[in-house]
Design goal:
Elements lengths: L2 H6 L7 H12 L5 E6 L6 H6 L4 E4 L5 H10 L5 E6 L6 E14 L23 E16 H4 L19 E4 L1 H12 L1
Length: about 180
């Protein structure tokens, strides 16, 4: 992944310092941090905790920018906030860890799946997923309304206008601040 990755996929909400951060990651084996959105009626932090081995493929992502993050950016060992959206209490519900790098999302090939994509093929898959493993559920959801008022949370796409992606990077300092707030 390179700075060109972000320019090529038109992520105007990503600041230049984020590009530097991700360029640095290319040169190291440093873990990165992410936020994955999910609708808890469909799949929640509790569902992840109750899966066999507490592991699940993160599939069904059908946005090209989010797909690019899954395919090119999210790596084994990265930490992920599980964020509940489209529900009464929107916010960060817990943490997962990526246990498998991006690979083709097999739901795109299944005509019976709601994620089926007839334009995708085994030779040229369009959609990717990663596997995540449950780490912890917070005692209460850290609400978006609180996140938006936190000093120092300025780069997180979630708090910026147009930050609607289902997969988004989180700066390490912001991750630490959000994690500490969620544990209070």
């Amino acid at each position: 992944m390179s700075a060109g990755f972000y320019k090529r996929f038109k992520c105007p909400h990503l600041a230049n310092d984020r590009l530097v951060y991700l360029q640095r990651r290319e040169l190291t084996t440093t873990m990165a941090y992410w936020l994955f959105k999910t609708e808890p009626d469909a799949f929640s932090i509790d569902d992840l905790a109750n899966r066999p081995e507490q592991t699940e493929p993160w599939d069904g992502v059908r946005n090209y920018q989010a797909r690019n993050f899954l395919r090119d950016g999210v790596k084994r060992g990265d930490k992920v906030f599980i964020y509940h959206s489209s529900c009464k209490l929107v916010g960060i519900a817990g943490v997962a860890e990526v246990v498998r790098d991006g690979y083709p999302d097999t739901t795109q090939f299944n005509p019976e799946s709601k994620y089926y994509d007839p334009k995708s093929s085994q030779d040229n898959p369009r959609w990717y997923r990663v596997d995540v493993k449950f780490v912890e559920k917070f005692s209460s959801v850290l609400p978006l309304s609180v996140i938006k008022t936190m000093d120092g949370i300025t780069e997180l796409p979630l708090v910026k206008k147009g930050g609607r992606l289902s997969i988004m990077p989180v700066e390490e300092a912001e991750w630490q601040q959000l994690y500490a707030a969620a544990k209070e």
